[in-house]
From TrEMBL:
This is UDP-glucose 4-epimerase. Pathway: Carbohydrate metabolism; galactose metabolism. Belongs to the NAD(P)-dependent epimerase/dehydratase family. Signal peptide: none annotated. PANTHER family: UDP-ARABINOSE 4-EPIMERASE 1 (PTHR43725:SF53), UDP-GLUCOSE 4-EPIMERASE (PTHR43725).
Amino acid sequence: MKVLIIGSKGFIGHHLVQYFKEVGHSVWKADVVVDYADVDRYFLIDVSNSDYNTVFHYEKYDLCINCSGAASVPDSLKNPMRDYYLNTVNVFKILTAINQFQPECKFINLSSAAIYGNPESLPIHESAATKPLSPYGFHKFQAEQICQEFHSFFQLNTCSLRIFSVYGDGLKKQLFWDLYNKAVSGNPIELFGTGEESRDFIHVRDLARAIEMVANTSAFNADVINIGNGVEEKIKDVVAMFFDCFDHEIDYSFSGQVRKGDPINWKADIHQLKSYGYKATIDMKEGLQAYHAWVTAFKKNVTE
């Protein structure tokens, strides 16, 4: 396939570029980041006028994966307009360009489990009610509706992936990045919540495999598909697992305070994804050990 990855400089986008190249696809990239070293099949997007016409006018693709946008619940509460533009308006602009220049191109948009909020029951099926707890969750759901709009009225091939908690090498934010920085400080650590909160984690390499399976199998009829491992991991358990990677004991506790916008418990129903042939290849312990090794090497290189 000829694949265009928008947001290629981000955490997920970078891994998708590597993965799709490794398995033999031709990959084009697009992002707002100026990179004079990356000139091969790379489109620089003007952040002030991102109409995407140039990207789709001069090259034909079999598949476009949109990994761009904002990815912070706290920031969406502080800057909801910015989040709306990056996660919702941007999707409309991309689909407008696809509709104008190559309506046969398949489009995958990375949505989020944040659209579910606090579900009434676990595991969470794609048919579950959507009750976002943050502007980020609302805007991701609106982007799904835009994908439905362009499929219904213009017959575009669209698909939205409701991604649960992704982690892995290169992620410089969120839980495990924060845990590492707090652990090396040597100070006692106080964490949000009680530890009984749960998430459904998926390693970024397994995410890349899942996305390829969706690309090869989905009907692209404005489908919505959960992307996770279908395993509920308690936060207290993954914190302990990660801190076991260190060579010294770490003093930590949970504050009992829940951060605004954060759901309590998540576990994905992934029957649809499994029907495409998906099975996890990286378990939690292995993934956290690899992440600890990566972040340790990264921090060492930064300070040298």
